Every structure is written in C-alpha cells, then in structure tokens.
Amino acid sequence: MDIEDLKTRILAGERRALARAITLVESGRPDHRAQALALLEALKGHDREALRVGLSGTPGVGKSTFIEAFGMMLTAQGLKVAVLAVDPSSARSGGSILGDKTRMERLSRDKNAFIRPSPSQSQLGGVARRTREAIDLCEAAGFDVVLIETVGVGQSETMVAEMSDLFLLLLAPAGGDELQGVKRGIMEMADILLVNKADGDLKTTAVRTCADYAGALRLLRKRPQDPEGFPKAMTVSALEDSGLETAWEEMQSLAEWRRETGHFAGRRAEQARFWFEAEVRERLLARLKREPVKGAMEALAREVEAGGQTPSAAAEELLRDYLQMG
Ligand code: GDP
Question: What dihedral angle (degrees, nearest 10) is formed by the CA atoms of 160, 161, 165, 167?
Fold first, then answer.
C-alpha cells in the first residue's frame, strides 16, 4: 500500500481513503499494523482540530435518532461530521449494533457526513486503540466534529470519555426512582446531560426529569475544567428536532471556554498520557502471558510457594531477567 498516496488523499478529505485507512488501523495483521503506524506518523503535525464529542446512553434512549438529527443540523451549517461507534456488545456477538448505516439513513447519504460502524473485536483494548486512531484519521481528513457513540455500560463509557473533548449523556424522561439508576461515576464524566424525548406526552416528564438531574449535578464536586453553569442538564427532542441548536451552542461555548483557559489542550495532553500508560500496561500484561516469561513466572511462583524465595525477590528476578527492567 502506498502510504504517501493514502496520506495525501486523507488530507484532501477523500472519504474512501479515510475508510481504507480506518480498515487498516482495525486490522490485526502485523504488516497492516506497521503500515497503520507509518500512516499515523506521516499524518502527524497537521494543524486541524476537530471537536471530539463523546455520546453515551442506554439502548432505546434515542442515540441514533439524536445523532442523525444533530448531524444533519451540523452539516446544514456547512460542517463536516464523522460518527464513530464503540459497541462493547459487538465484541461478544461478532456483529455490530451501533453506528450501523441503516440506523442513520439520511445522515449516511449526506456528503458532509462519514459514518463508521463499530468493529467487531474481542478486546476493549483493541477497540480503544482502533477508535483513537480512527478519531485521529477523521481529524486529519478535516472533519469539524467527530461524534463517538457508545452504549451505556460501564467501561466503554470511561474509554469514550477519555477520547473526547466533550462528553454528553443522553437520558430518557423518567420517574424519580429511575434517576438513581444513573451511576454517579458516569454523571461525573458528563459535561452536558441531554434529556431526550421532550415532546408530546413525555414533555412534562422530561422537563421534570431535567430539573432533577440539574439538582443532582449541583451536588457534584466542582471540576476545574468547568465554567460557571457546567455541567448542565437540558431537554431535547431528537424526533422533533428541538433543543438541538441550543445544545450545540452550549457545546461550543464550553469548548471555547476550555480553549481560552487551556483546559482543552490540557485535557488532550492528559488523555495522551492516559493512553500511553494504558498501552504500556496492556503490552506488559500480554508479555507476561507469553513464553518464556509465562514459564519463568510459573517456576518462580512454585519457588515462592515452597518458601524458597520471597515474593519480592522473585518478582525482582522475573522483571530483571525476563523483562530486562531495572
Ligand atoms: P438508540 O438505541 O439509543 O440508538 O435509540 P434510537 O435512536 O434507535 O431510538 C429508540 C426509539 O426512541 C425509537 O423508536 C425512536 O423513534 C424513539 N425516539 C428517539 N428520539 C426520540 C424523541 O426525541 N422523542 C420521541 N418521542 N421518541 C424518540
């Protein structure tokens, strides 16, 4: 594959080249991996900056309806929008549920939009790397907004929040009891809570739910990366296309404030460190499971069991002799 050519075409914003490059970063083949790294390296240093927006919510809350309506609104303003998905369930089922083209039919036909379904990979670590790299590729291709969608199930949310400049949580109108169902940790990650389906019969409930969430947000610890009034809760209707412009204005004003105060760049720097450390950990763990380290570890473990070595001395020996460290 001609990496220089692919690079030129990505920088020119060619969607087919972008799709091919994402396929490359998704591949597990060692030669593809080497090409992917060469491509990402070659693309470094462009001065494009997309707004990376993470979006989470439980199935049925309206994520695809929201992304379609929101995406269409952005492209109508002349912005280029990419949609990526992180679907933890696809790891198990082998299929992809999120980001399916059929879920966002109108948006997928829009020439200023790019939708990429979730890959089916077995490890969250692999999905994290692929998504991070796909975000970089979309940014290089000149997309203004990259939406990263995930289902509301624990780990994948943390992962998406660690790749996003802004994190949105989409919620359904609910009774008071259900409000408790949103885990505190997830609330703490969110910059904006969007209570969807604020239309028709559900409108009154949505407005009340929103007020409840706003109250809950006020009880959270103040974060340095928030201007006055954030994180905030708002109502929207993806179906009726209402509240979306206001939500976009809020996102922009938050991003602007963070840019001006250095929190935007600061967050990206922290994220880069986070992923670097995560990769190191993951690779070390992988090495522990491979020979000869695996066998040596087992042998040392037996010695420790038999009282021949202390746990600390054995650990030091393993790291020194088999992982060549310190
Ligand atoms: P996802 O599973 O989170 O992607 O949810 P979907 O976008 O597939 O929506 C689930 C259901 O909720 C569908 O029947 C949608 O038509 C409906 N829905 C989505 N957004 C709204 C909304 O703003 N108002 C109402 N009333 N229904 C909505």
Answer: 100
Question: Tens place of pLDDT for every residue, the chain, 326 residues?
Answer: 799 999 999 999 999 999 999 999 988 889 999 999 999 999 998 889 999 999 999 888 999 999 999 999 999 999 999 999 887 665 555 445 554 546 788 998 999 999 987 766 556 667 788 899 999 999 999 999 999 998 866 678 889 999 999 999 999 998 666 665 677 788 889 999 999 999 999 999 999 999 999 998 988 888 889 999 999 999 999 999 999 999 999 999 999 999 999 999 999 999 999 999 998 998 888 888 888 889 999 999 999 999 999 999 999 999 888 777 65
Residue closest by Cα to atom 6 of ligand 1: 62
pTM, entire model: 0.90
Give the residues across from 56 on adjacent strands.
150, 169
Is the same domain home to 115 and 172?
A: yes
Residues 253 and 309 in one domain: no
Range of the domain at 301: 289-325
- For position 93, which CATH number holds? 3.40.50.300
Ligand 1 proximity of 102 Cβ (cutoff 6 Å): no
Do residues 162 and 232 share a domain?
A: yes
Q: How is residue 220 annotated by DSSP? A: S
User: Ligand 1: which residue has its CA nearest to atom 22?
Assistant: 197
Question: What are 84's strand-pairing partners?
Answer: 116, 148
User: Three-class SS of residue 192?
Assistant: strand
Q: Is the CB of 237 under 6 A from ligand 1?
A: yes
Same-domain check for residues 19 and 123:
no
Taking each helix axis from N to C terminus, what angle separates 3-11 and 30-43, rounded to the nearest 10 degrees?
A: 50
